[in-house]
Amino acid sequence: MTILVLGLVLGGTYALLALGLTIQYGIARIMNLAYGEMTLAAAFVLVFLFNQLGLPPLLSILFVAPAGYVTGWLLYTVMMRPLVARSGGGGKLELDSILATFGLLFVVQGLLLLFFGSNFTSISYLDRGVSVFGVTVALNRLIAFAVCIVAGGGLALALTRTRWGLIMRAVALTPGSAPLVGIDVTRVARQAFALGTALAAIGGTSVAMYQTFSATDGVVFTMKALVIVIMGGVGNVPGALAAGFALGLIETFVATVIDPGLTLAATFAIFLIVLLWRPEGLFGRRA
């Protein structure tokens, strides 16, 4: 029960982070290697607002999430749109986006080190224990889990039950045919990239509520999100959510039963197995 409860709480954060990367790649065709740095930037902003201004984390999300969306919108317009135009709609965009965001990774990381330093950071926010099915869980973890469930679940419903979501899925499945029915593919791709950045920001706020982190940890979040995207199937939103919870359970099991130092090794071992055995993902590729 301890593994189940703590694994699901951790998996909620992973699922939300993977959902943002899934949307960015599945719809905008941008493989964003700076995704983890965006997550950390939001986490550091929340810490600053909490320590310097006394703003509660739940209130900070109302500012951080829109700021993440605007940041993603500007990044796509200034940095990604020229790559899209140059690629001509071919597979060259994936390679160019990997190279471009790899450089962006170090730019953002350098700025984080400049403004926040290299020390590990955390906040003391509602860290008292609460009993859940007989398992003591920190209240801040439960709040972070609730934030991830509301954000991720709400977006999943919007993608599957609204006309806006139908347009998003149409661009993900057939970007070449979408303009034939009046869909502005560039506008939808920009929205998807901005939305993915907003999800990274929300994920960063949930991380800051209960985890200790530093300015150089972004690559870990990026790689874990990428592992989940591959496990769930590229562009598969329900698959990303399910794989995120699965990874949280697996890491908690390894840390509890075997050795905490092997959690990262277990994550990438699963990634290699899925990549070799079922490269389309456990749930298949779709929008």
Describe what you observe in this structure.
The protein is an all-alpha fold. It has one domain (2-277): ABC transporter involved in vitamin B12 uptake, BtuC. The protein is 75% helix and 3% strand. It has ten helices and two strands; from the N terminus they run ααααββαααααα. The chain has helices at 2-28, 35-53, 57-87, 92-116, 139-161, 163-173, 185-210, 218-232, 237-258, 263-277; strands at residues 129-132, 135-138. It has a two-stranded antiparallel ribbon. Strand 1 (129-132) and strand 2 form a beta hairpin. It is globular.
Short description:
The chain has 287 residues and is mostly helical. It has helices spanning 2-28, 35-53, 57-87, 92-116, 139-161, 163-173, 185-210, 218-232, 237-258, 263-277, and strands spanning 129-132, 135-138.
SSE inventory with pairings:
Elements: H1 2-28, H2 35-53, H3 57-87, H4 92-116, E1 129-132, E2 135-138, H5 139-161, H6 163-173, H7 185-210, H8 218-232, H9 237-258, H10 263-277
Antiparallel strand pairs: 1-2
